[in-house]
Amino acid sequence: MRHRWASVLWAAFLMAGVLEMVVFALVDPESLRWFGGDTLDLEPRAVYTIAFFVFWAITAVAAGLALLLSSRPAGPGTDAAGAGAP
47 CB contacts (<8 Å, ≥6 apart)? Predict the structure, then answer.
């Protein structure tokens, strides 16, 4: 099970990097504004960092939910991971 979650986090890390490149190829971090209209008052590097961790968290949650929903429930003759007993 640890291996599966490590795979989820690694895949989410890679996708967060891709999302970061795509989003900031189109958006200037210095032009971002809060909902009220004020500028963020953050350095571009801080915006990149915060965005990366937000993207990583969102993709990790999505991949984790997919992992949980795709696993079979444990029942008679199966172990906790849902695989059949040998």
Answer: 29, 32, 40
The C-alpha torsion from 25 through 28 and 34 to 40, rounded to 10°, is 120
Decide: 55 and 20 in contact? Cβ < 8 Å. Answer: yes
Joined together, the tokens standing for residue 16 give 């967060």
Q: What is the pLDDT of residue 35?
A: 85
For the chain, residues with pLDDT lower than 50 are 85
SS3 of residue 12 by DSSP: helix
**Per-position b or e across 6-39, b if 16+ CB within 10 A of its CB:** eebeeebeebbeebbeeeeeeeebeeeeeeeeee
Q: Which amino acid is at 15?
A: M
What pairs with residue 33 in β-bridges?
39
Is-above-0.85 flag for pTM? no
